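Human: My hope is that you can spare some time for a protein that puzzles me. I am handing you a single protein, as its sequence and its fold in token form. Could you go through the record with me and say what the backbone is doing? Take your time, and here it is.
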Amino acid sequence: MEKKLMRIGVSLPGELLDKFDKTLMKRGYSSRSEGIRDAIRTYNQHYEWMQQIKGARAATISLVYDCSKKGITSTLAKIQHEYIDLITSSVHFHIEEDFCFETIILEGEGEKIVELAEKILSLKGVKHSRLTTMPEVKTE
């Protein structure tokens, strides 16, 4: 079965593309296209994994964001207040003049945790984010 290849155009900051190209060279990719295909496959697998998160969970959302982006700090606070029933704690600190690192510790229903993570992960200005989750452990 022949797979049809589609040609796309993507606009990226030069610094991001340079870093991507260097990573591809270090990892031995034969082309930028193959690296992009691999990155898209990984992104899709992560999304599919997130859709399987169900039931009682303990989780963290860790993110690095550009706090100089207009409105991002207040938007993050607003989103977190919408999910206050899930959030048990958070830690926030400044890693550079314009960048903050935050870890949000959560406990609750998996679907709601994913919903919160999706809202945060998609914000413009979030440079890196990671959802980590595990089934809630009950000790009796």
